[in-house]
Amino acid sequence: MKKLNVVIADDHPIVLFGVRELVERDERFHVVGEAVCSNQLINLLESLSVDLIITDFNMPADSPYGDGLKLVEYLKRNFPTLKILVLTMISNPLILTLLHELGVVGVIQKSQMHNEIQVALKAVAQGNPFRSLGPEPTSVLESAVSMDDRFAKLSSKEHEILRLFVSGQSVSDIARGQNRSIKTISAQKTSAMRKLEVNSDQDLLAYCFERNIFN
């Protein structure tokens, strides 16, 4: 039986080692490369015959290929036959849904990695999608409408701070530009994210980029 070639991408050496060890327990798969950033990943895909990549959702931000939804979208557009398993600590149902709609074969919660990788590999080998034990994906339309309602609850100052943050400014940059303290800006950003019910900057940015908010 022909083995499926695998590339693993994660910027944490310990995770790379752990994933490789788990993958190599399955004789149907062969690890042919590892990458610690998006640039390395794309270079490997352009030079090797690869059937499956297992990639972290969050990668170093200094790559033109990005990470998260942007990277997955690039991979599906330029390597359409490639199977993608995503490793993540994100539990936001909207982000998980968007990943599945982009065409990944599965999303593995890092907290469940040791339990789920073997199950995910079995599903891939059989040509089936993998569903994590984590939060179930929900309707993007319903989630999007719900998120739009939450955006409507933001104050004008909170809305402006998020707009500047999504445009690439740090909290410190925003504080200087607004002639306000970092503590004040940070508190308003935290309040805005609480109203939106997002738990991380990555969730916030992914949603705004996907929905073209502030663009």
Describe the protein's architecture and organization.
- The protein is an alpha/beta fold and 215 residues long.
- It folds into 2 domains: 4-125, Rossmann fold; 140-210, Winged helix-like DNA-binding domain superfamily/Winged helix DNA-binding domain (Arc Repressor Mutant, subunit A, Orthogonal Bundle), CATH 1.10.10.
- It is 52% helix and 13% strand.
- The chain has 10 helices and 5 strands.
- The protein has helices spanning 13-23, 38-47, 68-78, 93-102, 113-125, 140-151, 156-166, 171-178, 182-196, 201-210; strands spanning 4-9, 29-35, 52-56, 83-88, 106-109.
- The chain has a 5-stranded parallel β-sheet, with helices on both faces.
- α1 (13-23) links the parallel β1 (4-9) and β2.
- The longest helix is centred in the last third of the chain and has 15 residues, at 182-196.
- The radius of gyration is 19 Å and the shape is elongated.
- The N and C termini lie far apart (49 Å).
Topology overview:
Layout: E1 4-9, H1 13-23, E2 29-35, H2 38-47, E3 52-56, H3 68-78, E4 83-88, H4 93-102, E5 106-109, H5 113-125, H6 140-151, H7 156-166, H8 171-178, H9 182-196, H10 201-210
Parallel strand pairs: 1-2, 1-3, 3-4, 4-5
Helix pairs in contact: 3-4, 7-9, 8-9
